[in-house]
Structures are given as C-alpha cells and as structure tokens.
Amino acid sequence: YMAKEAGRGRAQLFEPVYAQAVDQRLDLGRHLRNAVEAGTLQAHYQPQLDLRSGRVTGFEALLRWTHPGRGPISPAEFIPIAESSGLIVDLGQWVLREACRQGRAWLDAGLPPRSVSVNVSPAQIWNVDFETTVSAVLAETGFPAALLCLELTESLFVDHTEQRISRTLTALSCLGARLALDDFGSGYSSLGYLTRLPFDCLKVDRAFVGGISIAPEKRKLLGGIIALSHGLGMTVVAEGAELPAEVDVLGGLDCDLVQGFVFSPPVAADEAPLVAASIEREACRARPKRNRL
Ligand code: C2E
Ligand code: MG
Ligand code: MG
Ligand code: MG
C-alpha cells in the first residue's frame, strides 16, 4: 500500500487501508448478526483423551462460521468482532445451547457420558445474568450440569475486583458445572488466581505444549505447572499437542488430558463419536509402549 500511495499526503497514505478494514469488520458484523437465523453457524467438537484410561472423556465445542461470500472464517477473526459489537452474548448463548443439546443427543444415542466444554467470553458473564442463562439451558436441554465445562480466560479478570469474580465463579460452580481456565500460559498467568478461584481444570496453552519433546526447560516448567495444579485439586488439559512424542512426554509429566491435532482437529458433530472411538482404539494399541516411558 505504501508504495502505491507514495507521493500522497500522510493522512491519505493510511486512510483507504484503514477504511477498508473498518468496512470489512462492519460487513462481517452484519453477516454475523444473521448467522444464527441463516444457519451458517456450526459447533465443531475436538476430542480430549484421558491419558491414563485411554478414553475420550470429553469434547470442546468450537464455533465455525461460513460467511456467505467469503467461505469459512476463523473464530480468531470473528470472535473479536462479535465481542466488540456485543453480538457475542447471542452467539455465546447459541453455542452453549447447541453444545448442551448435542451432548444430550449423544447420551440419548447410548454413547458413553462425555463432557462438553464451551468457551465463554467475559461479556457473556458480565453483561447478562449468565448464571440464570446456564441453568435455563441445562434445564431446557436436559444435559447434566456435571458434564458441562465452562472455559474462561484471564481476560475475565480485567476491570473487576477479585471479590466480584470470585462470587460469580462460585455461583456458576454451584450449578454443578465445571470451570476451566483456558489458555493458561499465554497471558499473565497469575498463580494467585489459581489458588483462590474455584477452577476445576487448567488448560495449558499450546505455546507451552508445542516443542516439549525437544525443549527440556519447557518440559520442566510444564511439569511444575502440572504438579502445582494437581496439588490444588485441578485437572490439567494440554492443548495443541501435535506430535506423538509430545503425548509421551505429557504422559510422563502426569498430565491428565490431551487435546490436539495429534488425535484430531475439531470435527462436525456427526463425526465426533466415530473419531472418539477410533482414538480410543489407537490409544489402546499404543498403551503398552507409553507405559514403558
Ligand atoms: P481455544 O478455546 O483455546 O480453542 C483451542 C483452539 O486451538 C481451537 O482453535 C483449536 O482448533 C486449536 N487447536 C487445537 N489443537 C490444536 C493443535 O494441535 N495445533 C494447533 N495449531 N491448533 C490447535 P479455533 O477453533 O480456531 O478457535 C480459536 C479460539 O477462538 C478459541 O481458542 C477460543 O478462544 C475462540 N472460540 C472458538 N469458539 C468459541 C466460542 O464458541 N465462544 C467463544 N467465546 N470463543 C470461541
Ligand atoms: Mg477453549
Ligand atoms: Mg485454549
Ligand atoms: Mg482462546
């Protein structure tokens, strides 16, 4: 852009590009607003393998959106737009209901009970009576609260007193749902929060997981985080494992669950049970090898 615009005034140098970006956001926002009714929104599911039992004990629900003109758009792009426009409250409610409905359908189909994790944005928690929303969705779908896990990130802690955060999380916890701290290690990662807030589960960001098979210092750090979490009574999920060697290291570090491309990317709901079954078969075959480590 700079080269093309060279010679023009400074303000003009950046304005067209900026306007285009704003335009695109507005356009995405407009389409996103209709996505729920248009049926272009989907939840995909990524399996989580319990390394000790070799069972897929849960799935994380991840939003997928197909833009009418542009095709599939990554949540990394549209979630921030939804968050800044307030649309996330509706989207978030949609995915929560959809995930619980799906989880119930899997139970009704006779599949083994598996948890469903749903990502929750701070705006959902602070802008509406989220606790009531969750309990209404659980009642409406008949999905057991104990199988629902709400994934929250550190961005929840911004601008609120610890007392307020603690009260809110405790209320959610009292519904019977589990609470996970997502993306641990990607931000400030305050250990204080872990000791004082009622998280059941810690999800270690893939920045901490990728490369552990070749980086001893990363391995030590992760081992420490896992030991600390266990000491606090939390389950640890490693996100983003891509290599079998990383899974072996995670098992050796006593990590509880692994979620990553090494097993499966997020898949459509109708594929998820089949993918889970095939991961379990493979884990069963691989187990004797893994135990030797
Ligand atoms: P997240 O909650 O940390 O979800 C995990 C992300 O890591 C997913 O990206 C998943 O596809 C990706 N991932 C899993 N395993 C691997 C791996 O082995 N390698 C690599 N490179 N990536 C892996 P996705 O689906 O693109 O979602 C990105 C983020 O968007 C999520 O990160 C979450 O913060 C947000 N998001 C997605 N769905 C929702 C939603 O329904 N509500 C809210 N509030 N946020 C959502
Ligand atoms: Mg998540
Ligand atoms: Mg994460
Ligand atoms: Mg995230």
TrEMBL record:
EAL domain mapped to chain residues: 25-280
Organism lineage: Bacteria, Pseudomonadati, Pseudomonadota, Alphaproteobacteria, Hyphomicrobiales
Protein name: EAL domain-containing protein
Organism: Bradyrhizobium jicamae
The organism's place on the tree of life at top rank: Bacteria
Coiled-coil region list: none
Transmembrane portions of the chain: none
